[in-house]
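Duplicate of #3305? Posting structure anyway:
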């Protein structure tokens, strides 16, 4: 009797999984969420503060500066004050504490390279210009945040790939140059932080790259880690408290729907359940309460959909 009940339970579970996949086109790991109300786009930026996600800028044939807030609780978007700088794409976005930041990128003035930075305050729904990134303008840079500091590296200046690393402290509105990224200079790297260490690598410089490195802010030093199974650029990045994730992107001539998890404790990459939306590049990612979100991007058309990942 117990075995019969067990068999029935397994059957019901499998029917449920099959039904979810058949009817919604997603696996349980990747439920589709509310799409961005604004225009589809690629090369947008995003970050999270508390239980809210924020997404803005990008391009869809013209540069954009609209800015949106996503509520995980209500699965809904609301429009916020436009980004304070010029409309642009290929910027970086991150949060430190209760504020968000967007800077660098291409702007609408003759595809000009930028190094300006702006701070967003959700409480007042306002933007404040902050100190410019020193040294050089750039687009397609990468970022990770450790504690109350952000770290920016890589990108394309319009003339060359770069590999410098800059530490930004919002409390003092100051930049300090740190030990340069040890790999080949490149743009569109995967960057995230886990357990007070920064991780940076993959990306593109005349070829798609897979090498990967760990940054220790205490010693201001880098350590090479396991390479990604696939060389990838233009990916959506998000992280949980224990792992980082690289999702979608481009490798060679192929748009990807791959999801790779990097476990720093094991120094190991694992391929996870593929992203359920169409393969794409230049999507953007953020995380809220241990769940990852991948939104927008380009697959031959500009996307505005969003999917949530359950690790």
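Output from current build:
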């Amino acid at each position: 009797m117990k075995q019969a009940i067990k068999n029935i339970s397994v059957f019901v579970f499998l029917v449920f999984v099959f039904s979810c996949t058949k009817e919604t086109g997603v696996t349980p790991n990747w439920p589709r969420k509310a799409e961005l109300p604004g225009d589809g786009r690629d090369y947008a930026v995003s970050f999270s503060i508390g239980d809210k996600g924020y997404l803005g800028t990008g391009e869809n044939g013209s540069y954009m500066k609209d800015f949106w807030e996503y509520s995980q609780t209500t699965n809904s978007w609301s429009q916020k004050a436009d980004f304070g700088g010029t409309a642009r794409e290929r910027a970086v976005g991150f949060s430190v504490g209760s504020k968000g930041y967007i800077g660098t990128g291409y702007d609408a003035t003759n595809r000009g390279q930028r190094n300006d930075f702006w701070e967003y305050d959700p409480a007042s729904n306002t933007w404040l210009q902050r100190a410019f990134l020193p040294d050089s303008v750039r687009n397609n840079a990468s970022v990770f945040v450790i504690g109350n500091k952000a770290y920016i590296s890589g990108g394309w200046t319009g003339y060359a790939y770069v590999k410098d690393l800059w530490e930004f402290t919002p409390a003092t509105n100051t930049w300090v140059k740190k030990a340069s990224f040890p790999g080949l200079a490149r743009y569109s790297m995967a960057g995230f932080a886990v357990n007070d260490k920064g991780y940076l690598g993959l990306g593109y410089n005349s070829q798609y790259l897979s090498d990967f490195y760990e940054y220790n802010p205490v010693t201001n030093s880098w350590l090479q880690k396991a390479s990604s199974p696939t060389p990838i650029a233009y990916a959506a990045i998000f992280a949980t408290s224990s792992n980082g994730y690289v999702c979608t992107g481009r490798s060679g001539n192929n748009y990807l729907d791959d999801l790779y998890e990097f476990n720093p404790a094991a120094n190991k990459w694992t391929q996870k359940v593929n992203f359920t939306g169409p393969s794409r590049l230049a999507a953007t990612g953020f995380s809220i309460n241990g769940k990852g979100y991948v939104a927008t991007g380009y697959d031959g058309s500009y996307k505005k959909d969003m999917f949530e990942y359950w690790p």
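Confirmed duplicate; merging threads. The domain at 31-309 is CATH 2.120.10.80 (Neuraminidase). The CA atoms of residues 243 and 263 lie 5 Å apart.
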